[in-house]
Amino acid sequence: MYDPTIFENLKVAFENQVYDLDNLDRKITITNRVDRMDFAIMARDFAIQFTLTDQPNVTAEIVLGASVNDLAGEILELPGMNLGCSLLVRFTKRIQNVAIQCELIDQALTTIWENEIQLTQTLSFVYEQEASSYLDIIEVKFKSKLNEEHMGDIADFLDHVLETLEVLTGL
Known about the structure:
The chain has helices at about 5-25, 70-75, 100-115, 155-170, and strands spanning about 30-40, 45-50, 55-65, 85-95, 115-125, 135-140. By secondary structure, it is α+β, with helices and mostly antiparallel strands. The chain has a six-stranded antiparallel sheet.
């Protein structure tokens, strides 16, 4: 009999709650969804991207991943392995004043997410166009792996994502 992996269980839990925020609560608008098996490295990833309803200028993308080691370790029931999934939230936002806005974003996200994350901001602009604004890709990567014990935390996690979208929209 088929026994779903940690990845499958978490993917379904995230998917259900995010779709509820879109379809039932109407707090967000889902703009993209990816469910991929990477055969080159035998890994899985699931991503779902969305914006706050009527505020399309800042996006959030939740990315859940499972490596071959995690998938194989679970399927083969290998003892002593720290099995689970990686979790990353990627926000995108246009900014004009790099020095000020990036620091404000760093402070705001550190307050919201506390010590659970590794935070990076990557800036880009289109070559040969005047750089009046930059695309800021803000990645919030979680230090520890997720497993089924974290299912009850998904609603709180999504509240933090929505709070981050609201803060980023205001900056």
